[in-house]
């Protein structure tokens, strides 16, 4: 989205009107009260790690890092659960994760070509591992077949935006517009870093796709341009408190994954800092 064409966050909120803001504030307050009673430090949000963050490490090492982070959910990238693994190997990996006290929520990003066998294999991969959401980047002409598989397997597909240079889904709005032509289980995974890197307002875009928002990649970036680089959450330009408020306001029940792309050879310190900031913000809201 061109930055000049995008509403500023202030303009968007002003256009919404005082009545809508009041309703949102009331709904958010009610949701927070309900979550506070549970004593959940994550305020009902399913905070997790997208395992691309630990791409240089094994599955066992990734599990150790998740436990060190006190994170109980994960989405696996293929280096931690290869596509070519057998059904038995997929199930064994899922059991290992479960036995460690971690819920395997999904897989991805999975790139889907217009190839029925490849798409079927991807859905069987998710089914065998017990994944409920496939974070995906399907080719446009593959979507009719993807829809058929969604109906057969009852697995949600969350289309992931990749920002500058992505010819199909640079923005979550592109994914949302296309997903609306298909089964309601095909929706959106917002990568908020890539969204901000194309000049979008991080709060506006969440509300714009809310009814098909099935997954969320949280991160921070150094600037609101294509040059923006990944950085510890809280140190960059993204309005992380505003993002978390929006997700709480919507009573978001999907997955909120830290995708930490910096420091690939030693990601744990930056991930700890990022989760510390996120949880600090949640405690203060």
Question: What descriptors fit this protein?
Answer:
285 residues; alpha/beta; two-stranded antiparallel ribbon
Provide a concise account of the structure shown:
This protein is α/β, with parallel strands linked by helices and 285 residues long. Helices cover 43% and strands 18% of the residues. The chain has one domain (9-284): Alpha-Beta Barrel (TIM Barrel), CATH 3.20.20.
Give structural notes.
Mean pLDDT is 89; it is low at 1-29 and 31-35. The protein has helices spanning 9-16, 18-36, 59-68, 87-99, 116-129, 143-153, 172-179, 192-197, 202-208, 240-249, 268-284, and strands at 46-50, 73-76, 103-112, 133-138, 156-160, 186-191, 213-218, 220-221, 230-231, 255-258. By secondary structure, the protein is α/β, with parallel strands linked by helices. The strands form two sheets. An eight-stranded parallel beta barrel has the order 1-2-3-4-5-6-7-10, surrounded by five helices. A two-stranded antiparallel ribbon has the order 8-9. The protein has a single domain, classed as Divalent-metal-dependent TIM barrel enzymes (TIM Barrel, Alpha-Beta Barrel). 42% of the residues are buried.
